[in-house]
Specification:
This protein has about 525 residues and is α+β, with helices and mostly antiparallel strands. About 30% of the residues lie in helices and about 20% in strands. It has one domain. It has a seven-stranded antiparallel β-sheet with strand order 16-14-1-2-17-18-19. A five-stranded antiparallel β-sheet has the order 10-11-12-13-15, with helices on one face. The longest helix has 29 residues. The structure holds 2-acetamido-2-deoxy-beta-D-glucopyranose (2 copies). One 2-acetamido-2-deoxy-beta-D-glucopyranose binds next to loops. One of its GO terms (molecular function) is cysteine-type exopeptidase activity.
Length: about 525
């Protein structure tokens, strides 16, 4: 009974989102410098806002490759099964009735690839390199070779190869950028709305933001990257964040060699000198006039409200004004006081509590203060305007907060299944190789009691009955209690790091099983 109800709700939500948004994913990503965090770690986050993503977390082991080997490139696919084959992870071995993923192309392989944890996008590798992602609008649209063009790379495939080959953000940026330029980049969502991508990166020492879009005539690529200052936080909310660039300043910027020539050849913007050039202004459409969802009015606050919120929280400034202009918001801001990993987890859960935009208030929150909104729909076409867009939204399929630190193998991808507002983060340690089965099985289309995503998606959906009271009386305190237990357990782990990976994995699996299995009454 219950399962049917949830399944129906989930299916309906999917249809609305798909019909209204043309299957836009629209994620949020943060990058935090090492002097901005209490723990002294760099951090990157990713709320994966995806209606029907495969919820399984895979472990991709390290491998040696023969000379002359090639690496197959997977087509862009988010739904279950996002990959089928024996060459990447045990998780992806073909189940009865499944056929191996057919590659869209190949690139030269390297002698050795590193291990990493992978959700829809890769999370963290064994050297503590973490990544987040947010799809951005761009004027240059790449055309995939499966759609009549030549481009081979979607962003997730670029990120995976970055994880396989690199220990540092700079290395991954160079690898991703070079591959995109050589083999072509295409966006995940149709049209200009989804033609660009931002990747946030954190290694033990540095945090970076990388932007990539197509090159000329739908092929190749153009890219730029900027380092987040150590005491700063940067947020990407479906719009490029890098503005002025100085490609000669290699401490802070990395650029594709064609960044200026492509802008001129495609007549994207006018600039006299390289110093006048502005990446956001040049490569991105103006969200104040651009229709992000075809047939709908522009929704600039979709981006700027999230920028405003993180800038307000991190700088502890209650008086920042909200505008519809992304140029009013700096690439990154210095934090007013060091922030903890738990504070950053709370950022990913945010829905503007106690501000004018509090999504639990007002007529749209209904009788029971529900901050969940379904985007799109006829209403948004008939009445111009937009409602606030939270960080944690109904279609967030997971949130990851990667804490990259010394020694790198102790870095942690903290992962909350389903939307983080109603979920709890569990650790996936960079050097661990095994996780609880709850996180490695399941499918959004089929209800099951052995899947972490379903446990938390059920809670989230059930709360629609009376969000306010359920959050205040039951779910909120339970999230806090469980998150505290897990943070304490990892603190204890830190004080006496186990010598064997086996023990580390037992602790990790124990925490994951305890959360999903016992507390939420499954099994
Ligand atoms: C792109 O196409 C235009 C014609 O639309 C052509 O003049 C130009 O040479 C092409 N550029 C590249 C790099 O292929
Ligand atoms: C995170 O949010 C919860 C719920 O509002 C709160 O109890 C907790 O203190 C917050 N944690 C931090 C570190 O701000």
């Amino acid at each position: 009974m219950a399962s049917k109800g949830v399944l129906l709700r989930s299916a309906l939500a999917f249809c609305f989102a798909r019909a209204a948004l043309g299957d836009v994913d629209g994620c949020t990503a943060l990058a935090v410098g090492k002097k901005a965090t209490v723990e002294g770690s760099t951090v990157t986050t990713h709320n994966n806002d995806c209606s029907l993503c495969d919820p399984r977390i895979a472990y991709v082991p390290a491998r040696d490759h023969a000379e002359g080997a090639t690496r197959p490139l997977a087509p862009f696919r988010l739904e279950y099964p996002r990959y089928v084959g024996t060459d990447r992870s045990d998780l992806y071995r073909p189940m009865p009735g499944q056929k191996d993923t057919v590659p869209v192309g190949h690139v030269a392989q390297v002698p050795h690839t590193y291990a990493y944890w992978e959700g829809t996008y890769p999370l963290v590798n064994e050297h503590g390199l973490g990544m987040g992602e947010s799809t951005c609008s761009s004027k240059l649209i790449g055309v995939a070779n499966t759609a009549g063009g030549t481009a081979l790379f979607s962003v997730s495939e670029l990120m995976k190869i970055g994880m396989e080959r690199c220990k540092t953000s700079r290395c991954a940026i160079q690898v991703m950028g070079d591959l995109a330029v050589e083999h072509g980049f295409f966006g995940e969502d149709p049209g200009q709305g989804g033609a660009g991508e931002a990747v946030t990166l954190a290694d033990r020492d540095e945090s970076w933001v990388f932007h990539v879009t197509a090159g000329l005539n739908g092929s190749s690529a153009t890219w730029v990257a900027q380092r987040v200052p150590d005491d700063h936080i940067a947020i990407i909310a479906n719009h490029f964040g890098i503005k002025k660039v100085n490609c000669k300043e290699s401490d802070t910027f990395m650029c594709s060699p064609n960044i200026f020539s492509n802008a001129r050849a495609a007549n994207l913007c006018s600039f006299e000198t390289d110093e006048d050039f502005d990446f956001l202004g040049c490569y991105a459409p103006d969200i104040r006039t651009f229709s992000y969802m075809a047939g709908y009015a522009p929704i600039p606050y979709y981006t700027t409200l999230r920028l405003w919120r993180i800038h307000s929280l991190a700088t502890q400034n209650d008086h920042l004004t909200v505008t519809n202009n992304p140029f009013d918001y700096a690439f990154s801001v210095p934090v007013a006081g060091k922030i903890s990993v738990e504070t950053i987890m709370n950022y990913t859960r945010d829905h503007y509590a106690d501000t004018d935009y509090d999504m639990t208030k007002g007529v749209l929150s209904g009788t029971f203060g529900n901050p969940n909104r379904l985007e799109g729909g006829v209403g948004m076409q008939e009445i111009r305007g937009q409602f606030a867009r939270g960080f944690s939204i109904p279609r967030t399929s997971y949130s990851v907060v990667v804490q990259s630190r010394h020694p790198p193998e102790r870095s942690i991808a903290w992962l909350a299944a389903d939307q983080p507002m109603t979920s709890v983060f569990v650790p996936f340690v960079a050097s661990a190789k095994r996780a609880a089965a709850f996180y490695q099985t399941g499918q959004q289309e089929i209800f099951s009691r052995d899947c972490a995503w379903w446990a938390f998606n059920f809670v989230s959906n059930w709360m629609t009955i009376n969000f306010q009271d359920m959050m205040a009386m039951h779910v909120g305190p339970k999230i806090k209690e469980q998150q505290d237990i897990i943070m304490k357990a990892v603190k204890t782990l830190d004080e006496q790091w186990p010598e064997s990976d086996m023990i580390l994995e037992e602790v990790q699996i124990g925490l994951q099983e305890h959360l999903v299995g016992e507390r939420f009454g499954w099994h």
